[in-house]
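We give this protein:

***
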Amino acid sequence: MIVHNVYEYKGIMKMITIKDVAFRANVSPSTASRALRQIGYISKETHDNVFRAAAELGYIANATAQQLKTRNVHTVGFIISDSNNEYYFSILTDIQKMLTENGMNLIIAFSSENPVDEETCFRSLIASRVSTIFFTPTNDQNGEIISVAKKNGIKVVQLFRDIYSDLDTIINDDESGCCRAAAKLLELGCRRLLLVDVEYLYLDSERVRPDRSTGFLRAVEGSGAVYDILRFPLVDYDTNVLSAHIDSFRPDGIITATNVAGLEVLSHYGRRQLSGIRFITFDDNRWLQFCSVSAIRQNTAILAEKIKEAVCSRQETPQKILIPQELIIRREALIDI
């Protein structure tokens, strides 16, 4: 068994081996290996000492350790939080292209907005010896496995949600984007505005920054317009709740925080053959362009470039990168189904 932790010894980066764990626990390498694999009889005291040493060193075994002798500096891991959101797959094209051009590979994992699955993804990527892990945090409870990744010499970067203050962060400026969208709807004459924002299953929405709701409120407060905010779950959502809220509030202008929620709003109005509602959604894509739906477009080219910089950077101080967004108005933001 070979581990992946990298440490500095007299200015030289070295890989930690089972011998290092054994030395820390004051046992033989074979005893340390048997304790970690729970093979044969090991006293409780020895077992605890070995596991404590492994934890302190950030030891995670590699399933392909016999074939790999060094950390895979040419592979990047990307944990996607929401497999239903087309936006994540649209940005992968630019990211994959950028990595390929720079001689790097990409491993994709899915956390399904679940912190338990997120931890599993981290462990798998650590075992694969990736050089960098990009992820969209599902909550703020996985600091321990993030620390293990760092001990293994892996750079960890959070995307789109600024949750962990000690990590490099690359986020879209959703707050300003939503503010611009709401201001545009007011300019077009809307007086009953609804924001369909995101509700997180394991994360307090108030802690997510930048925050679309804050931008929305900045635009509508003091405008004289009536407004409301509905938080729509990212997973296991009930479209009947969304439809009932729309029917009750009867907005003349709607902003949706994701293209998933946007599709549900369009489906709601399509089923009822209604028109005349001004509508803007986040996550511009080809089907929105085809349907002439106004959208807030994230700059994937800049995102890919910032990801490249994060992979190559040796900067130790956490960096916060805010990517501007573009408001694309089509048909004056009017739904016409």
Observations:
- The longest strand covers residues 2-9.
- DSSP finds twelve helices and 15 strands in the chain.
